Amino acid sequence: MASNGAAAQEVIIVGAGPSGLAASACLSMRGVSSLVLERDDCVGSLWRKRAYDRLTLHLPKHASALPHAPHPAEAPNYLPRDDFVRYLDGYADRFGVRARLRREARAARFDAAEGRWHVAAVDLDTGDVERYVARYLVVATGKYDEKFVPEVPGLEGFPGKVVHASEYRTAEGMKGKSVLVVGCGNSGMEIALDLAEAGAITSIVVRSELHILTKWILNLGIMLRSYLPVLPIWMIDKLVLPTAMTSMHGNVVEFADGRRHPFDAIVFATGYRSAIKRWLQDGGDLIGDNGILKQCSPKAENGLYYAGLSGRGIFGSSMDAVFIADDISKKLLPQAQGQGKPEHNS
User: Fold this and answer.
1) pLDDT lower than 70: segments of the chain
2) How far is CA 51 from CA 85, 145, 166, 169, 226, in A?
3) What's the CATH superfamily of 146-207+243-268?
4) CATH dotted code for 7-145+274-336
């Protein structure tokens, strides 16, 4: 225990999704212990509890494995949701990830005099506040923290079903119904397809220009990632949908171009908002409004690191975990110096 009664750790990791699990595993492989604090009652809660049934990983398995645990040869090239959940469970067990579940981080500050991070977390089962102190803090809560639904005048009076993409599971009961999907990211497109295949009369709306990539183009981008920072625009099919919801009147949605149309249900595939800045009192300014890290390196100041916030999916989480573990272990274990270079610039 630390002098103030806080539980002392070498590394505290906040979040037990793929990024947090990968960081803990990589640290363990280098002989560094860590403790993971997770708000939910399981690891990988986004995939287990907030993902629609037909979801598969959008990257092929060679680009969506966590460090030191490639997917088996017989696994599907694009893993279904349930297969990936089992993979995360097995990963946590294999590397002995120490996770305290139902612990929600409420405050994290750096004490310059001590050179330590002080983290306060609430046990959501008892309401008790637990305090931890560590030399290093890894923020791995992801950008999918709290669902975001835009304010639409009249939405509260809509008589039909309204759900966020995180609450959508299947199109059961939607056959023959008119359904509006708001948002055209991966989730919006797949949910719209799921509804259409189930016989729903499906419409999609998005406020701004949309770029559509085929799986072939996406895989090509993965192969070229070391050579091109972004894909040339000529490699991407471009679709413009210049309209947006402006208001609702009963079951009728009015759009920016003046059109009006009745709907039986609405699915908001409008993303999430990060809650990191609410509890991270030092270093949160590096997180943009979109929940993405403003810099390329996952390393901040004073022993603070960010895992999985680069906007590069599971592949980025793996790169971050390897870098973080390498960087921390070289400081804690000087004899590790010279055994390889980090994959990011500090």
Assistant:
1) 1-5, 208-242, 335-346
2) 11, 13, 6, 7, 31
3) FAD/NAD(P)-binding domain (3.50.50.60)
4) 3.50.50.60
